[in-house]
Amino acid sequence: MDNKLMHHLLWERMRLGDKDAFFDLYRTLYYDLVNFGIRVCGDSETAGEATDQVFVTIWEKHAQLDRVDNVPAYLRTFLKRKILRMLERKRKINDALQNAGAEGEWMEMSYEEFIVKVQTDELVKYKLKTALEKLTFRQKQLIHLKFFEGLSYEQIAEQTQHTIKTAYNTIYDAIKILRKELKD
Q: CA 51, CA 15: separation in Å to the nearest integer?
């Protein structure tokens, strides 16, 4: 049996919830995907972590996955997007750390100022947590995809199987609720 047909059959069985098919797919494609990921980002650790996340995601969403003709190509595209999102997130974190380090503000604070800042941060976290509890599950899911995963409205619509307009409106409504709750 050629590899393309084998991958296709494993994919179809996995979509139906067959764990053995999932693990067979994992075993046959994992190292090729990691090597591809290394070519994309130049870092074996990031490539391995992203590949792991791709496989976790496809198992978690196996029932919603579409038929795929070329499984390795589909997974390479998925992996490339995952790596690019991870690199963007790391870049944002590094920028924030550099800005904090450049300002050196937190190093120069007195103990009392530091405590006030921490307590203020805790209050903001509490308010945000309370505000998030007012959102529906779908609103939370789409907010997470938009602002934490960094996906576009098109990508969100594709991933959640909604229209782009529905994704936009749901996120807009969620932001209105968050603004109202955080304003108080």
A: 19
| 45-to-26, 34, 54, 83, 101 alpha-carbon distances in Å | 18, 9, 14, 11, 26
List, for residues 20-65, the tens digit of each pLDDT value. Answer: 998 999 999 999 999 999 988 888 888 889 999 999 999 998 888 8
Per the model's pLDDT, the better-predicted residue between 76 and 124 turns out to be 76
Rounded Cα gap, residues 166 and 168, in angstroms: 5
Q: How many helices (H) and strands (E) does the chain have?
A: 9, 0
In angstroms, the CA 98 to CA 114 distance is: 19
DSSP 52-92: HHHHHHHHHTGGGPPP-S-HHHHHHHHHHHHHHHHHHHHHH
Quote the mean pLDDT of the chain.
84
